[in-house]
Amino acid sequence: MPPTAALKKVFNTKSLKKGRPSQSRVDEGDDLEEWKKSKQLLRPKDQLELTEPELKDIIARQLGTNDPLIPQNLIQFNHAQGAFELIPPTGPMIVVYETQGTQIHKESEEAKKQVEDQGLDPSILEITDSAETIKPDELQNIPEETPGDEETQEEESEKPEVDSEMTEEDTEKETEVGEGEGEGEGEGEGEGDIEGEGGRAEDEEEKHHHGGKPKKLTNQFNFCERAALTYNNPVRVQDTQTTPPPMGTFSANVLQWVIYDAYQEDYAAQQLEKELERERKEKEKAPVSRHQAMTRKLVGKAQLSEAVQGRVLECWKVLERMVNQNTFDDIAKDYRYWEDPSDEFRDEEGTLLPLWKFTYDKTRKNTVTDIEWNPHYYDLFAVCFGFLDFMKPLDEGAVCLFTLKNPSFPEYICMTDSAVMCVDTHPKYPYMVVIGLYDGSVNVYNVQATCKQPAFRSNNVTNKHRGIVWEVKWAPDLPDGEMNFYSVSEDGKINNWVLMQNDLAVTTIITLFLAKDEVFGPDGTKLKMKGCASCVKFHPKQPLIYLVGTEEGNIYKCSTAYSSMFLLTYPAHHMPVYRIDFNRYNSDIFISCSGDWRIKIWEDNRLEPLFVFDVGACVGDVKWAPYSSTVFAAVTNEGKVYVFDLNVNKYKPICVQAIVSKKRNKLTRITFNPIQPIIIVGDDKGCISTLKLSPNLRIPCKAPKKQQHLDQWTLQCMKLDKLLSLVREPATLDIPEDTAESIES
Amino acid sequence: MGDGEGREKQEETKKIIHTYPLIRHSDMPEEMKQEAMELVVTACEKYSTNNEAAAKMIKDEMDKKFGPPFHVVVGEGFGFEISFECTNLLYMFSGGNLAIVVWKC
């Protein structure tokens, strides 16, 4: 629309020009003038040139209600009539914003109705009308008065909501408060002439309530918001959750060959199990392996580490022995090869060559109470550490197994809490060691399994001797394979112990009652005197027969078949009999030693000894040599070892040698090695000395020229028989007994 | 395949045919395991030609005894990966050629 634009421009410039003088801007006027002066007004080329009167001419313009832009004659197609029809013009008004007023004119019908609804007299409208300007406080009363009613109304409307949201208590409280307030206000407003009205209003209000009048209308004057904040009850989750049951996943493939393999595997395992079971049963038959079975039960790592330890231990043991062999190289050579050459020039006499000494640090104070070579290993021997000096009792004891291959340390150590007095190693199972203790109990160790605790232990209260156990001895196994042993004790009893599955079963086979009358005990009781057994020896050929030496000096010949009587009583010694030993070659011959300084050789069923030797000191132990029927050795308290050979000299020992110092030490026990020409002696300082017999002490029998075919055994027996035949002769010419007794070394 | 099996069978007959029930895997309590095993053996013997019936019987009995829902698979060759409620799984072989899986879930 270029023409209109141009027209506007014209109009603008005109109005500018026109309005300039009429503008009453004083302050701005000057600036504008100046600005105009400085600037040349640009005129459009097509501006009309008007004359002065033309310019002054006022063109009056009128604003009319007619809008030229409103469309005229709008039509619409009426489908009902099928023709166009006129739409009435819309008019010039445009509604931009529309809102409904809440005010009502006082004089209108509506206002009257409202007042009536509120229960007020319609005349109030006139009153208030007149008092509007005079009493503004009354005006206030009107809206203020309403809260009471409003409240109730609100309550009514709110109640259902409140019920749903709040607890009943809360609602009641709320209504009470509301009512209280309403009443208070009512009272507060009760001044002047309104008082009566207030009361009336209240009355009427009650009527409304009961009468169920139409609800009053609300407007902005009688509406009062009374917001109440109620407690927000915390939200609680009511549902419960349990942990789901544990689940697992499993997967496998089933194929025929899988099944087949599984069966094969299982069958093989079963076979193996059966095999093991059989082995176990076999082993369990022998109670010896009870501990092995137990150790086998140790599973997993423990077993493995034990095995590893065992192997390491074995290596260490070998190393230790090698070191010892180097250390005691000369002794080892002596032991093996040294034969005293001076024996050739010494007629009929021999010497003892000291070899190793065995001690164990923890038992230095103990006395060696028994020593015994192992029946299976010729280099191994068991030593008991206890005490014989009963004025100085010791708490601890031990049994140690030494080997000649390691003189520095015991191979096995079994510590006990009481002094060990005797030991015996089972001939069939060389690892089963039985010991008798000072406190009267007996223990059986399986040293192969463990040395820490006995495999069997007699009950400390019920199953024990009432005195020192002086000697223990393994007996041949019972017919059903159970091991058993005998023990003799100071209390005069000889017990037989059977190794059951778990414990020791004990039977007293004999009580050594003395052949004396009963003596009177306290409170009129009578006691039968009992002998104190101090040693026992079983007959090597007749398993029932055994000899018991007592502290009274008697030697009883007994049989395990009879528990009440002795087969024979030898009045052997005047002091305790310490040891008895049967001759290896002739089991009718036995030797005994005693504290009465004497060694006596006896023949079975002969109450008089064949030989008597007095060595001038208490004889601790005496033993027949295994290699000769006529050689025996004894040890005395004075620290000397005596070796006799009856074949060489019937009156004097062929060797007397002091092994330990006479003043300080005593020798207690002696044993021949069954194979090697050595003896070991134990003393009271816990030391065991090894001695090698010189050649003169072990001369083998020379077969007569006529009987070259005879072996050594027969020759030895012949030698002894020949000797005995000399002694036995009743009408003996040369050896009266007293002569023999008087002989002293 | 058929040939292979035949050869295998022959070898087996040469050796020993194992038909005893063999539990391959189970986390059931001992009593339950024994009972389930006996049930499986009974069912497999009763319906020796019909694995489906055997499985149904096992499932029904197990449901009755130990409470549903049990699932049972009886077959000679299959693979499985299952989720089961702990202490309710039994995987065993029976009769030398059958595998039985019983589980609860």
TrEMBL record, chain A:
Residues 146-196 have a biased composition (Acidic residues). Signal peptide: none annotated. Residues 260-289 form a coiled coil. It comes from the Eukaryota. Belongs to the dynein intermediate chain family. It comes from Zophobas morio. Its main location: cytoplasm. InterPro entries: Dynein_IC, WD40/YVTN_repeat-like_dom_sf, WD40_repeat_dom_sf, WD40_rpt. This is Dynein intermediate chain 2, ciliary. PANTHER family: DYNEIN AXONEMAL INTERMEDIATE CHAIN 1, DYNEIN INTERMEDIATE CHAIN. WD repeats lie at residues 570-603.
Automatic annotation (TrEMBL), chain B:
Its main location: cytoplasm. Keywords: Cell projection, Cilium, Cytoplasm, Cytoskeleton, Dynein, Microtubule, Motor protein. SMART domains: Dynein_light. It holds the Pfam family Dynein_light. The keyword Glycoprotein does not apply. The keyword Membrane does not apply. It is found in: Cytoplasm, Cytoskeleton, Cilium axoneme. GO terms for cellular component: axoneme; dynein complex; microtubule. One of its GO terms (biological process) is microtubule-based process. Belongs to the dynein light chain family. Force generating protein of respiratory cilia. Produces force towards the minus ends of microtubules. Dynein has ATPase activity. Consists of at least two heavy chains and a number of intermediate and light chains. This is Dynein light chain.
